[in-house]
Write the structure tokens for this entry.
Amino acid sequence: MTRQACMRYNLNNKMKIFVKVKTGAKIEKIKKVDKNHYEVTVKEAPEKGRANAAVVKILAKYFKVAKSMVEIKAGYTSKNKIIRITNLHKFGHE
């Protein structure tokens, strides 16, 4: 994943994104579809919240925030999720 050198500041210090999750993959990755839509691929199976935990972890790393700042707001048992990320100071765009 490459990032552009320019950084964008989020004035609210939070953002809402829509994520489509694919589980059971060989590699974990994030694909930005548009400004607020992402596809996240994780290795974990959707059992006992493991895939959700992996999604939170990979998004926290991508947006450079603590895992506690990434919250699944809707879609906990679905592959389509609404996620809120808080404590953003600046983040890169692909």
